[in-house]
């Protein structure tokens, strides 16, 4: 019987037992996606790492209407891009965006990110415990940062947060289409504003390309630039607060934060069943025949918990080498990785130094995850100190 995705996640940090069983049985498995389409799931660290940078896989499909889908999200559930021009298109877009997300450019943002984090924690402290760390910190900080970087009005956050959540819905295609359409219209509106009155921001620098492309890129950056980091901050806090020896180590030695951030990026189990790719040609993965157009899911969750690479993978250990695949690998390595690391380091440095007695205000089994949303993540994170 072919296993059906997504596997039920037993908790915000727990790896689904079905995924663990598949990983222990081998690296490549036939599965069905949430909408019943067949795909190949790859679970081993070495294979996932290699395939993330394999040009025989891509996001486009030679016959998109007949392609297997991962879900009903209009933006993420099906193929993207033009099959004939994908490699060239991808290289051009990365060349266009890379200067705005280079490590040097992102490092220049550190004082501002530190200040925004401090302001949010000032408000948290003033309100007093108990508090919802998700609402008070994990959600607003990435939104504030990406708004400033892109040149998006922060006052519009309630509008675009709703649209991004709708666009990422994996079960309701009509809702996803409405969200994507609203986001794209908003992107065109912003691009028009920046053409008339440019500023020192990313969207203003995108106005050299056609409006429709600039709008789509801007909204993709808006989604990816805040949604995933919101999830990472919340799950990172849970990871630390359910491993109090590691939290205390961070409190005692804040210089450990960079290593802690890499373990935070590796260890939590995130939503999704794997990074989707489509085969651009016939080839084999460990003797398994893959045919042109086949859907291949690269499970970074399983790869990040591969016991042959990460001994005792469920344990949180700041001393591990930073060879997780959370940001991908190779030519498609996440362009926003330096920004995410900057935000995570600011958050956990200031939490450890200002709130050393921080604790969860509820049992971990009471924490709930967002359902039917591509990125998953917590709905709330009650804490006290």
Please provide a written account of the structure.
With 385 residues, the protein is of the alpha+beta class. The longest helix is centred in the middle third of the chain and has 31 residues. The model has no long low-confidence stretch (mean pLDDT 94). α8 packs across α9.
Largest sheet: 5 strands, mixed
Total number of helical segments? 15
> How many structural units, i.e. domains?
1
Average per-residue pLDDT, rounded, comes to 94
Structural class: alpha+beta
The CATH class label is: Mainly Alpha
The CATH superfamily is identified as Cytochrome P450
What percentage of amino acids are in beta strands? 5-15%
- Tell me the strand order in the biggest sheet: 1-2-8-5-3
- Count of distinct strands: 10
End-to-end C-alpha gap: 49 Å
Secondary-structure element order, N to C? HEEHEHHHEHHHHHHHHEEEEHHEE
Helix amount:
40-55%
Features:
385 residues; alpha+beta; Cytochrome p450; 3-stranded antiparallel β-sheet; 9% strand
Task: Produce a short descriptive summary.
By secondary structure, the chain is of the alpha+beta class.
């Amino acid at each position: 019987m072919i296993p059906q995705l997504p596997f039920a996640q037993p908790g915000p940090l727990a790896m689904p037992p079905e995924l663990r069983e598949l990983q222990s049985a081998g690296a490549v498995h036939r599965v069905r996606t949430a909408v019943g389409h067949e795909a190949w799931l790859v679970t081993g660290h070495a294979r996932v790492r290699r395939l993330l940078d394999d040009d025989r896989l891509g996001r486009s499909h030679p016959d998109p209407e007949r392609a297997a889908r991962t879900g009903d999200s209009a933006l993420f559930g099906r193929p993207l891009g033009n099959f004939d021009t994908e490699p060239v298109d991808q290289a051009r877009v990365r060349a266009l965006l890379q200067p705005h997300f280079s490590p040097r450019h992102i490092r220049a943002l550190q004082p501002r990110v530190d200040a925004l984090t401090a302001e949010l924690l000032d408000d948290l402290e003033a309100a007093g415990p108990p508090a919802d760390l998700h609402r008070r910190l994990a959600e607003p900080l990435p939104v504030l940062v990406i708004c400033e970087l892109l040149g998006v009005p922060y006052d519009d956050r309630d509008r675009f947060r709703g649209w991004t959540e709708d666009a990422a819905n994996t079960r309701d295609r009509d809702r996803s289409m409405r969200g994507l359409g609203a986001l794209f219209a908003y992107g065109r509106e912003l691009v028009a504003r920046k053409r008339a009155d440019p500023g020192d921001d990313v969207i203003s620098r995108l106005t050299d390309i056609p409006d429709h492309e600039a709008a789509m890129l801007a909204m993709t950056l808006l989604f990816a630039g805040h949604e995933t980091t919101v999830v990472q901050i919340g799950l990172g806090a849970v990871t630390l607060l359910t491993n109090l020896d590691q939290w205390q180590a961070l409190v005692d030695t804040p210089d450990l934060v960079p290593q802690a951030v890499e373990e935070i990026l590796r260890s939590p189990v995130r939503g999704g069943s794997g990074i989707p790719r489509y085969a651009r040609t016939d080839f084999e993965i460990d003797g398994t025949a893959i045919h042109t157009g086949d859907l291949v899911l690269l499970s970074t969750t399983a790869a990040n918990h591969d016991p042959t690479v990460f001994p005792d993978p469920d344990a949180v250990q700041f001393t591990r080498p930073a060879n997780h695949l959370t940001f991908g690998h190779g030519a498609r390595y996440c362009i926003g990785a330096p920004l995410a690391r900057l935000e995570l380091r600011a958050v956990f440095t200031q939490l450890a130094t200002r709130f050393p007695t921080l604790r969860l205000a509820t049992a971990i089994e009471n924490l709930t995850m967002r359902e039917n949303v591509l990125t998953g993540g917590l709905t709330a994170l009650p804490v006290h100190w």
